[in-house]
Amino acid sequence: MMDEIVKRLEDTVRDSDKKIQDAADYIGVNRRQISRWISPDGMEMGIFKLAAFCRFYGVSADYILGLPKGSNWPR
Questions:
Q1: Has residue 51 been placed in a domain?
Q2: Is the pTM of the predicted complex or chain greater than 0.70?
């Protein structure tokens, strides 16, 4: 599961025309931190950093986390 999340993070960063430094500035981390998130070792990010990452790159947290589209949650 973690490998899939790291892959989606990496794909999001690599498919974007945005600079990693701009993302780091927006999220409030340094470039190395983003590199750690998308590395095979996959250092974990907190929920607030995930939210900022998603806002910056215009993706949903559901996508990053691999949750199904249109799920019945919350009930």
A1: yes
A2: yes
Residue 23 and residue 9: Cα distance in Å, rounded? Answer: 12
**Does residue 42 lie within any of the structural domains?**
yes
Q: How far apart are CA 23 and CA 45, in angstroms?
A: 14
**Would you say residue 71 lies in a domain?**
no
35-54 tens-digit pLDDT:
999 988 878 899 999 999 99
Long-range CB contacts (within 8 A, 24+) of 8-17: 8/63, 8/64, 8/66, 9/37, 9/38, 9/53, 9/64, 10/38, 12/53, 12/57, 12/59, 12/64, 13/38, 13/57, 16/57
